[in-house]
Amino acid sequence: MKYAIQVNASPNDSNSGYCAYQFIKAALAKEHEIFRVFFYQEGIYHAFKYSTPPEDELQMTKKWTELAKQKGIDLVVCISAAQRRGLLSDDEAQRQGKNDRDLAEGFRISGLGQLLEATLLADRFIEFG
Amino acid sequence: MTKKFLFIMREAPHQGIQLQEKLDVILTAAAFDQKVALLFLDDGVFQLKKGQQPEKQGLKDTASIFNALEIYDVHDLYMEVESLQERGLKPSDLSLTVQEFYRKDVNELMRGYDIIF
User: Fold this and answer.
1) CB distance from A44 to chain B under 8 Å?
2) Best of B32, B36, B60, B110 to disrupt the A interface by mutation (most A CBs within 10 Å)?
3) Confidence of residue A99 (pLDDT cuts 50, 70, 90)
4) Among 3.40.50.1950, 2.60.40.1930, 3.40.1260.10, 3.30.450.20, what is the CATH number of B4-101?
5) Distance of CA A93 to CAs A74, A90, A97, A103, B42, Å?
6) Which residue from B minimizes the CA distance to A129?
7) A2-128 maps to which CATH number?
8) Which end of chain A has fewer CB atoms within 10 angstroms, the N or the C?
9) What is the pTM of this model?
């Protein structure tokens, strides 16, 4: 089955992002397809490259980056949600006269159209948090 | 491709930007020519309360965005009767006309949709 996933909560306020991650791992292990993971609202905090939790705590951003690398999962961060919270892509930062390269590896920034496309093309859509 | 989308509106307005961000998804779905409906539950019923003046507090007038939904062909606005009553509100306190549903019928309503936000 083909799944589209949305993550709405930050890694620090909720474990729903981690639940999404565990669901994805389990789904992939059963040979399901993850069409896209869309990070919206506070969920965009999963994509900050320089988030540096203490070593004995959950490293969510690193986990996503590894997942994208190993399994080729499409991790999309909503551009308007990201901009509201100060996470800019390279070109957007440049356009706004800011100097940010904060997006973690394995993520890309795009619009809500990507979320809609994912809900339409997947068999199931699951929203976490 | 067309799917039926149901958006569950259950937070009070002006508590943060959750409502604005949800409205963005609603307008995007509508702009994609999807079949879109909204269900107001719990404190979400306040989103349509008449006579809000959020600009006075420097907040966004989200209620006026709901008025624009008609332009996007979004006509199905459902409201849970009990949520409205528990908050001392009547349909005439709302800025838009809604279809009322009793709590016992909400499950059945949801079953009619492909995607629930």
Assistant:
1) no
2) B32
3) confident
4) 3.40.1260.10
5) 22, 5, 6, 11, 39
6) B117
7) 3.40.1260.10
8) N
9) 0.92
